[in-house]
Design the sequence.
């Protein structure tokens, strides 16, 4: 695995100025299509087969299977391999059936190699109307990469995902931590509409990057099934459902009281929420959103295009 540099790059301190203000007290009205006040975006992270693995030449195993436990790097981790394979063999299809059964359009944050290794799943995405956001060539930490290598792998992912799904990806979301170069590479490449690496807001917003407006569509690590494994963790799927329900109720109520609409991103993973018990929480939440006045599902691409049309700086 690539290692972090030993010394700090001075340019990293000024590359991405921080913004502590955001929209402040003047939250805009998103005017979402259909008159909804909260746009719910389901993001299914499809990573299985792209994780760190001795079989792929990495110098260690991944630790994000069903448990965060690392065995020695010289020993093949069959336990984590099996947990990841469940996502592609079973869990991904269980989530696919839920989306099909309820007619919900979602977003797939997909690692290119993972789709290459499961062409049947990529074909299903191609045949659907779900959108795909780039999640890397592999499920690796881009923050450890040199700029040239990060760009090379991004270009490889773009070409690969277009070949497997038929979609030219318009958004980007790395594994956990973007590098200070990620946004500049997105702008330089020229084909991206938005960046989804930040988690600092509940609405899209524009940033000025190298003199050009770049749309940011924030992600969420809170409304995310990673909490099954990260403390404070969900004890049961009911905890996940109740977290999502309470959030949606609060956001809709805020909008009804005149405080502006919102976007609610829900992060799912095939190997985690694709387990039968946990899928029940996803099913409950889908049913709840469909019955909830003021809420509705939107794809991430539709959210980005709506914001770009209506809120792009003059």
Sequence:
């Amino acid at each position: 695995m690539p290692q972090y540099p030993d010394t700090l790059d001075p340019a990293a301190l000024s590359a991405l100025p921080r913004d502590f203000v955001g929209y402040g007290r003047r939250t805009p009205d998103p005017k979402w299509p259909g008159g909804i006040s909260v746009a719910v975006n389901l993001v299914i992270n499809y990573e299985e087969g792209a994780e760190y693995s001795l079989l792929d030449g990495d110098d260690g195993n991944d630790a994000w299977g069903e448990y965060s436990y690392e065995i020695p790097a010289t020993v093949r981790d069959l336990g984590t391999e099996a947990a990841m394979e469940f996502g592609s063999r079973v869990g991904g299809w269980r989530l696919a059936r839920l989306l099909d059964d309820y007619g919900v359009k979602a977003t797939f944050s997909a690692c290119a190699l993972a789709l290459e290794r499961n062409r049947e799943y990529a074909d299903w995405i191609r045949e659907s109307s779900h959108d795909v956001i780039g999640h890397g060539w592999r499920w690796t930490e881009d923050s450890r990469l040199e700029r040239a290598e990060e760009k090379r792998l991004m270009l490889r992912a773009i070409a690969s995902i277009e070949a497997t799904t038929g979609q030219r990806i318009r958004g980007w979301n790395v594994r956990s931590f973007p590098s200070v170069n990620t946004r500049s590479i997105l702008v330089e490449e020229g084909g991206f509409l938005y960046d989804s690496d930040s988690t600092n807001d509940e609405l899209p917003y524009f940033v000025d990057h190298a003199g050009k407006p770049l749309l940011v569509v924030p992600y969420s690590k809170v409304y995310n099934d990673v909490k099954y494994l990260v403390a404070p963790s969900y004890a049961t799927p009911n905890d996940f459902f109740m977290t999502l329900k309470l959030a949606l109720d609060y956001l809709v109520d805020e909008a009804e009281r005149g405080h502006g609409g919102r976007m609610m991103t829900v992060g799912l993973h095939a190997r985690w929420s694709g387990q039968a018990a946990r899928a029940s929480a996803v099913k409950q939440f889908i049913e709840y959103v469909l019955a909830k006045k003021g809420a509705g599902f939107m794809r991430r691409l539709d959210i980005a295009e709506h914001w770009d049309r209506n809120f792009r700086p003059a």
About this structure: The first strand starts at residue 38 and ends at 46. The chain has a mean pLDDT of 92.
